Write the structure tokens for this entry.
Amino acid sequence: MEEVKLMKGNEAIAEAAIRCGCDGYFGYPITPQSEVLETLMVLEPWKKTGMVVLQAESETASINMVYGGAGCGKRVMTSSSSPGISLMQEGLSYIAGAELPCVVVNVTRGGPGLGTIQPSQSDYFQTVKGGGHGDYKLITLAPASVQEMADHLCLAFDLAFKYRNPVMVLSDGLIGQMMEKVQLPDYQPRLTNEQIREKYPWATLGKKGRDKQNVITSLELVSEEMEKVNNRLQQKYREVEANEVRYETFLCDDADYLLVAFGSSARICQKSVELLREEGIKVGLFRPITLYPYPVSQIHEYAKQVKGMLSVEMNAGQMVEDVRLAVNGLVPVEFYGRYGGMIPTPEEIVKALKEKLMA
Amino acid sequence: MTLQEIIQPENKVYGKTPLLTDTPMHYCPGCSHGVVHKLIAEVIEEMGIQDITIGIAPVGCAVFAYNYIDIDWQEAAHGRAPALATAVNRLLPESCVFTYQGDGDLAAIGTAETIHACNRGENIAIFFINNGIYGMTGGQMAPTTIEGMVTSTSPEGRDVMLEGYPLKISNLLTILDGTCYVTRQAVHTPATVVRAKKAIRKAFENTLAKKGTSVVEFVSTCNSGWKMSPHQANQWMAEHMFKAYPLGDLKDQ
């Protein structure tokens, strides 16, 4: 039976984790996402599903616990907010390099530095352009509602194991803290060690039943071999780009102008579209759901039919670079953003569109 | 008597455990790592726990430990092995998890992970090679470098007023309630090798009995880093290192 509940985005993450068969959560408190760990500790999933929940000594430890758990073929995750995610970049690079599946939730806040605890989308670059060292990619999902917090968490685990790659759920303090109705997923049993041995023959569960040892590592000192490792990774990323692009459109078909926005910004932009439509201005909203892989060709196709696009973000202009790359000069691409924890109003966005694209 | 006649089971006095692979070790001649690897492999074989043992390798000279001992391994980022081991132990409580770490890995960059894993009393064994130097990167000063010891980043000898004191991290770990066994061993003589092997066995037994964290420190040589012959290095260790790091059990509960 599917249940509908009223809850915060952060609580939805915790509920969904237990329900989608998560084996372990390792995290460290940081505003505005501490409810994830708090909710898990209240729900005590170790009594119900056997899921391990552990408060680590730092985000560095959290992500390395995730590495250890992922190496055993377990469904493991962590969550944090921007400064904590910065600390995890080393671990994420290792996890990507060792080709391990895991889920990381970033409930972002304004930076740089200690910044603010208010919502922001200024971790876009860090998430989709690298963050840690080396050529790697994080599959990135951008939920725009509490419902999607739950849905994306489960999807993130599926994608992580499909591609043996870390998946980031890039949320923000607005979605993490706001309460909405959520239809929670059904309980999915955790895999047994025997099932893991069968499904994930690479997992380090102990050598039992195998002639060959399993080794989880990202190390390869011979350059020729390390290039091959990178080739394999790049091939995987091309496959992800071909198969996993997700996006949503709102009144785009007859649009003269497009707002492009993800997550919280997209929620606000939806209202802006309605306001502009009331004035007779044909505007649509294009919402990338996967930030990596980015809906490049889809945005390019729309560029052939609109007069311009406005990228609306809660940062100083990050995703706009990808919109411009996708549009490739066909039409003007402008940017409007608020940052440092400020949230744009629908009216501000209406004004920005008129000034930047219609003047 | 021909060679074939000599190679008979009844004449066998010593054998290599099959857990040690045939991969040639990259360690310098005279280095303690090879001996400690062999002891760990022997104990795993003798205890019959090859199928349930998972090792966590460090960053440092022992980064390739997984090439030499035939069990499942995970290779950690520098200093993070106890965090990996924590998760493996919690998610696979019936397994036998150990980390193998050097002094830079365990006592500098990974200090927080070490202390907190020990403080939580994770059911893991920590094997700690203390040779007072960063071997792999070419002989820089380590947190455990003893006073006056010359390294490439303390060319005039470690000046404690400038660079702080050698970190006696095993002593520090004894005061944590999560540790059940902390001992300091060496492998430079037959007698110390025998004692060190007993300590490794005890650490694994504690782990299987879920008694908490066991830490076995091996005061070790790095003759290449120390710029000595293997024999000189053993002598220098006995004369100088053992003063700062006296051998014996620090805690046994």
The mean pLDDT of chain A is 97. The domain at 3-193 of chain A is CATH 3.40.50.970 (Rossmann fold). Chain A touches chain B through 39 residues (CB under 8 Å). The radius of gyration of chain A is 21 Å.
